[in-house]
Amino acid sequence: MPLIFAEPAAPLPAEAELQALRLLADLNPHPVLRFDAQGQQLYANQAARQLLGGLAPAQQALVSERLSAALLAGGSPLIEVGERFFRGQAVASVPPAGSLTLYLVEITEQVLAERQLAEQRSLIEQILDTTPNPVFVRNAQAEIVFANRASVELRSQTSHLHPTHAQPATPPLAQEIASYQANDAHVLATGEQLTSEGPVTLATGEQRWFRTVRRLLVRPDGERQVLGISTDITAQRVAVRGLELRDQQYRDLMAHSQALIFTHDLAGKLLSVNPAGAALVGCPAEAMVGVHLAEGALPAYRAEVAAYLQQVATQGGHQGVMALAPPGHEKPRYVLYHTHLVREESQAPYVVGYGQDITERIEAERALKQAKNAAEAAVKARENFLANMSHEIRTPLNGVLGMAGQLARTALDSRQQEFLSTIRHAGQHLLHIINDVLDMAKITSGKLELESQPFNLCDSMYECLQPLVAQAQEKGIEVTGTRLQKSCPQPWVLGDAYRLNQILLNLVANAIKFTEPGGRIVIVGQLLAETEATITVRFSVADTGIGIAYDKQEAIFDGFTQAYADTTRRYGGTGLGLSISRALVEQLGGSLRLSSEPGLGSTFAFVLTLPKAPSPLAPAPTAPYDTGALRGRRVLVVEDNEINRTVARLLLEDWGVVVEEAEDGRAGVDRVRDDAPYDLVLMDIQLPVLNGLDATAAIRALPDAERAQVPIVALTANVFKSDRDHYLGAGMQACLSKPFEEEDVYRTLLRVLPTPRSFDLTRLRQMARGREEFVVKIIRSFLRNMPGSLAALRQAMDSANWTEAAKITHHIKPSLESLGLVDVADAVRLLEAAPADSHAALRAAALRLLMQGELALAELPHELPGGIRS
């Protein structure tokens, strides 16, 4: 519809005109408000009412303040209403006098766009400020329009580019400025991007080099400016100069180095060889260029050249030894080489390598390896010899001493006891010699390891020397000294008590050996120093014996050496004691000193610093080993030596152990698999058919988990710790050394075997209803009557009289149940049923019942008032 601008044909009535004007204001999409002189709102169009009506009271109050401020300020202020923005215009209104009309035009999108633009500009400036590259914009008058932080900092470090610079520049600096201006002018004139490199001289005189990229920047108003981004290339220029220098150095190195330096392509053809390499091969360097590597190698190495080239190409380098065959040389020359693949742009990849002639080293290493192999073979042969000797001597010695121990338990007259004492003394002496030889072997092979356990130094020293003091007194030698306890109030230390005692025993034994009756021995222990963590003590043994010649005093510490040729014949011994003692002292951190006058006597002394250990609250009591705690246990002895089996059987049976035997490893495995379950296996190591380690592995692999986990204790004549660690690592629980002491055997078995209670008195106490005397009465009855019943059951089992065994089992069943004997219910049921075709199962059940019954007989006395004495 066309619009016609003209006076209305006929004026509207006043009321209609007024209504039209009001409607016109309400239809205005922009808010319009009218206020009187006191700020009271007189009118608001619909847009204003909608704007204000959507605000909370608090927001309305805030908007009211802003509108009032806008009216007072005049002009066209920016007014924020909630999240919207308006441009206000106050106009004087018609009466009443002083009233104002406020017209609001929404410019929210404009404000947000301007803010976003400002944020983007700020972000760009922040980004430019964080870059280390100077960024600048210059106009045609060479004035800086924009500069980021790096550019400002750079200009501040100069004298001729600084904004406050007012002094005329020196000619070199003026030349720099002219260069900048010329580059800018070129970009402004041509519009082409320009990359240039040039120096910037700092105020300190240091010169930095920059690569600057300039491009034309045309502003909306048509003004032409230059945008420049600079990069500091000072380090690159230094590096380039360094590369040039190193290139020259490389040429000098190639020419003058005594090492072989060469390059070749990936096909294996030489590209260059330095003079040293040419001299090694015996050809001029020029003649070697283009020669294939395989042509200079020995025939045996030529096949490896192809593999070498493949490895270099795939892995980027290689190192190794190459045997060359120089003309005129009878023997090959060996070169240790390192090569690296080099890949560079615009040229084919090549390999650079360097090497050195190691022919003499190769020959020396071969000789050394041969000597080392021979030495290792000798050491291994010695260890094998010692192990075999130990086994071959300790095994029968175990039988001798074991049988002597059993014989000592029989009734002997005085003459027989004297013979027996001689046997045992000779056996112990032989064992002492063997131990000395083996200790020396451990020391020389570096396999002697020291323990670190807390012990009372004073008590240990006193107790170990008492037998020797008595021996000296029997010989008529006076023994005096000073006990360490007098000067050492805190004697508990960490260390190896056994080895320390061994040193003292060796020194005192030597003093007794070489001192005649009527002589004197002085033993002294003295505290020298003490800290919070350690004590330092000195031990000395002085005698009035034969003394040692001055020229022999160092030699006596050598193995198998004594001071005089007839010493062994007159005094006995192996000559190892002092050698072992010195080595032990040194391993403990000290040194063994000797002072001696021939014919007057000798003094041996050493000083040790030992870490302190806390004193225990009370010494742990040593439990006796004859309590019968092993009674009824089933033990399998796997040993090929009949005498040693007999010794073990007699020893174990004295403790009430049920002993079975096997002569070889295979038989031992079969018995563990087929017999009634054993509580423990004593396994010799050197066994026929299947050795002890293989037999242990076979047992551990049995499908029956209970049988596979039976505790196994090694019986061994090997004394090296590495051997013992090997046995334990193979699945054995402990080791017993031959010849073994009775107490060691007992305590090892007691430690390895769990000893759970064989009974449970819960049911009996429930029946007693608090009457403890009833419990005691039943236990006493069991202890009184059960031994006879068990003996009868064993007799019935041995004769396979299972009918009688069933009667006995039925008779003792109530007692077994009331005392809650553990793990016998199945055995009782089977024995009562006594199936005719189950001989093996019945025997196993009887053995289980006998074992548990005997264990209960051993343990129940402790339940009586007063314990086992009741």
A few lines on this structure:
Pfam families: HATPase_c (PF02518), HisKA (PF00512), PAS_4 (PF08448), PAS_8 (PF13188), Response_reg (PF00072). This protein is of the alpha+beta class and 870 residues long.
Task: Report what the structure shows.
This protein has 870 residues and is α+β, with helices and mostly antiparallel strands. It has six domains: 92 residues, PAS domain (Beta-Lactamase, 2-Layer Sandwich), CATH 3.30.450.20; 108 residues, PAS domain (Beta-Lactamase, 2-Layer Sandwich), CATH 3.30.450; 101 residues, PAS domain (Beta-Lactamase); 162 residues, Histidine kinase-like ATPase, C-terminal domain (Heat Shock Protein 90); 119 residues, Response regulator (Rossmann fold); 108 residues. The strands form six sheets. The chain has a five-stranded antiparallel beta sheet with strand order 2-1-5-4-3. The protein has a five-stranded antiparallel beta sheet with strand order 7-6-10-9-8, sandwiched between helices. A five-stranded antiparallel beta sheet has the order 12-11-15-14-13, sandwiched between helices. The radius of gyration is 53 Å and the shape is extended. The N terminus is likely disordered. GO terms for molecular function: ATP binding; phosphorelay sensor kinase activity.
